[in-house]
From TrEMBL, chain A:
GO MF, one example: protein prenyltransferase activity
Keywords, sorted A to Z: Prenyltransferase, Repeat, Transferase
Gene source species: Aphis craccivora
Family designation: Belongs to the protein prenyltransferase subunit alpha family.
Record's protein name: Protein prenyltransferase alpha subunit repeat-containing protein 1
A cellular-component GO term for this protein: cytoplasm
Keyword Repeat: yes
Automatic annotation (TrEMBL), chain B:
A GO molecular-function annotation: SNAP receptor activity
Superkingdom of this protein's organism: Eukaryota
InterPro entries: Longin-like_dom_sf, Longin_dom, R-SNARE_YKT6, V_SNARE_CC
Gene Ontology cellular component terms for the protein in this record: cytoplasmic vesicle membrane; Golgi membrane
Keywords for this protein: Coiled coil, Lipoprotein, Membrane, Methylation, Palmitate, Prenylation
Keyword Thylakoid: no
Organism the protein comes from: Aphis craccivora (Cowpea aphid)
Domain Longin as annotated: residue spans: 9-128
Protein's name according to its UniProt entry: Synaptobrevin YKT6
Length: 354, 221
């Protein structure tokens, strides 16, 4: 195939990028640097473990690497030469959404040309540029699931959760990042490791209060909470004083009814859910009119009624929601109305607003 | 994100405004964007003070950012740039507090003659860090609890007015809410032209503005 070579500098640029990626194991960021015209110097900028590429050359470099990579792929002959790797590196830094290029890297790992640990480092750098890109997360999970096959180390999984959290901070409601975290939590639970779920439960609480309109973070907490209430082993590492919430939520008659000797974790699990309900209330008071907070509240009410389907819960919930709705009816008028209506229709909890 | 990005104190002169002190917290931006973001925030800060009347407050929404401004009757002005999740009421209370502390520290007769390099007011950095968590401001907002009942509406132009947040001041300041920067500019003024004319912005930042505008996002390409 005839490849046009109208940008001769491309080869030098991609080699320079590859050298930086190879030599710096602490590289943390990649970004495009806005520069409409060539400055008669290399467009690759490298400072303080951050790699930048000037915007004027991006189009030319990408065309160069894309054409070459597609022609390599079309020949279907596994042409692994040292040339392919720099082409892939630049292509994926600029546009990480091309699954074919990640697949080519997967083959290079399987053939031993790329090391899985280096690949985790490289894909983390790409993630700093496109924090929502699903292909990157999939690639990382593929490496863990197919190559490393080890989910026993807390250290490795914690690192992965940190990477997920950083990506979540880079793009609002980044479902892909949270889903990535949850995948690792599931893997750790399969290994009967219950410490990470409580760690995440505590850590994302702060995170949520700093990102009050992040739907995906709330949804992640909902998934964690479902695990916590479903299996009492998940609660064993949790450090929180849930008894306060229980005292606040139920009156003494109701508490008495709740005592069930057969289910000793019952109190604790319900305490976690109630803690979250009060935490949610605090956020709604502080940050008015955020749909994500009200959706989360809906989930919590549903969970309480659904799991502990007994009358005294409904009664206590009704009293609590009446108090909250009355308190917030001025500042969050629309959401309170919706919430009350939903409680009536979905949970059969009637609330009359004053 | 509940976040404060920049806080500045300015003096509003008859024709233009002078920056007296500013503090930034831009770690959430990419390394290569920080410089342009900072320049641009500085530019917006100065422009908005010049377009705000004396003894008035404004809150301007620009995409996911909020710019809160308060110009006191004595022409000392404060500007706070935050994420739109940061509670607006807390932002204005914080501006009041900042300007009170500034005027206690730097005598008012010197304001018209000072520039940024001559002012020592390092408390500004500390305040920006501390009030990243709006709960820290709880103590000072409690006095003004009754303002919670005042509804704030965001609209294209002046939609709502509310009385002074500043309990010390008898003059009722007015908070105007706008939802683009263009809405506070004078008739016929275009943000594009102001950016092009500005001397405070580097060539790179002007290109950054153009690109960000094209992709309809301020900080991501």
């Amino acid at each position: 195939m005839d490849l046009d070579d109208n940008f001769p500098a491309a080869k030098r640029i991609i080699t320079e990028i590859q050298n930086i990626v190879n030599s710096d194991s602490k590289l943390k960021e990649f970004d495009l640097v806005i520069q409409p015209e060539s400055q008669n110097k290399s467009p690759v900028i490298y400072v303080d473990h951050c790699l930048g590429l000037e915007s004027w050359c991006v189009r030319h470099v990408y065309e160069y690497v894309y054409q070459r990579l597609i022609s390599i792929r079309k020949r279907l002959k596994r042409q692994v030469s040292n040339d392919t790797i720099p082409l892939l590196t630049s292509a994926l830094l600029i546009n990480p959404e091309v699954l074919t290029f990640w697949n080519m890297r997967r083959e290079l790992i399987l053939d031993g040309y790329l090391k899985p640990d280096d690949e985790l480092q490289f894909s983390a750098v790409v993630l700093s540029f496109k924090p929502k890109c699903a292909e990157i997360f999939t690639y990382r999970r593929w490496i863990f699931f197919n190559i490393l096959k080890d989910f026993s180390s807390n250290h490795i999984i914690l690192n992965e959760l940190t990477i997920g959290l950083t990506a979540a901070a880079g793009y609002p409601s980044n479902y892909n990042a949270w889903n990535h975290c949850y995948w690792f939590i599931q893997k750790s639970l399969e290994q009967e490791n219950y410490s990470l779920i409580s760690h995440q439960w505590e850590q994302t609480k702060t995170w949520c209060s700093e990102h009050v309109s992040d739907h995906s973070c709330m949804q992640y907490r909902q998934r964690l909470l479902k695990c916590l209430v479903a299996d009492k082993k998940c609660l064993q590492h949790l450090e929180c004083c849930t008894s306060k919430s229980i005292l606040r939520f139920f009156n003494s008659d109701e508490r008495h009814k709740l005592m069930r000797p057969s289910e000793d974790y019952f109190d604790e699990a319900i305490g976690v859910a109630l803690d979250e309900l009060y935490f949610n209330e605090d956020l709604i008071v502080m940050y008015q009119n955020h749909e994500s907070l009200w959706n989360h509240r809906r989930f919590l009410c549903y969970l309480l009624v659904d799991i502990y389907n007994i009358d005294c819960i409904k009664e206590a919930l009704m009293n609590n929601e009446r108090r909250v709705s009355t308190k917030l009816s001025k500042s969050n008028e629309l959401y309170v109305k919706k919430h009350v209506l939903w409680l009536q229709t979905a949970l059969c909890i009637p609330i009359k607003l004053l | 994100m509940v976040k404060l990005f920049a806080m500045s104190v300015l003096y509003k002169g008859p024709n233009d405004s002078t920056l007296l002190k500013s503090a930034f917290e831009l770690q959430s931006f990419g390394y290569f964007q920080r410089k342009s973001v900072q320049e641009f925030m500085g530019f917006v800060t100065k422009t908005i003070v010049e377009r705000t009347a004396t003894a008035a407050r404004q809150s301007v929404k620009e995409k996911e950012y909020m710019c809160h401004v308060y110009v006191r009757a004595d022409n000392l002005a404060g500007v706070l740039i935050s994420d739109d999740e940061y509670p607006h009421r807390v932002a204005h209370t914080l501006l009041t507090k900042t300007l009170d502390e500034f005027s206690a520290k730097v005598p008012s007769h010197s304001w018209p003659k000072l520039n940024e390099t001559q002012v020592t007011f390092n408390e500004l950095n500390a305040m920006l860090a501390k009030y990243q968590n709006p709960k820290e401001a709880d103590a000072m907002t409690r006095i003004q609890q009754d303002l919670d009942d005042t509804k704030i509406i965001l609209g294209m132009f002046v939609m709502d007015t509310l009385y002074a947040l500043n309990a010390n001041e008898c003059l009722p300041s007015i908070v105007h809410h706008h939802n683009t920067i263009e809405a506070v500019l004078e008739r016929g003024e275009k943000l594009d032209d102001l950016v092009a004319k500005s001397e405070g912005l580097s060539m790179q930042s002007k290109a950054f503005y153009k690109t960000a505008k094209k992709t309809n996002a301020c900080c991501r390409m």
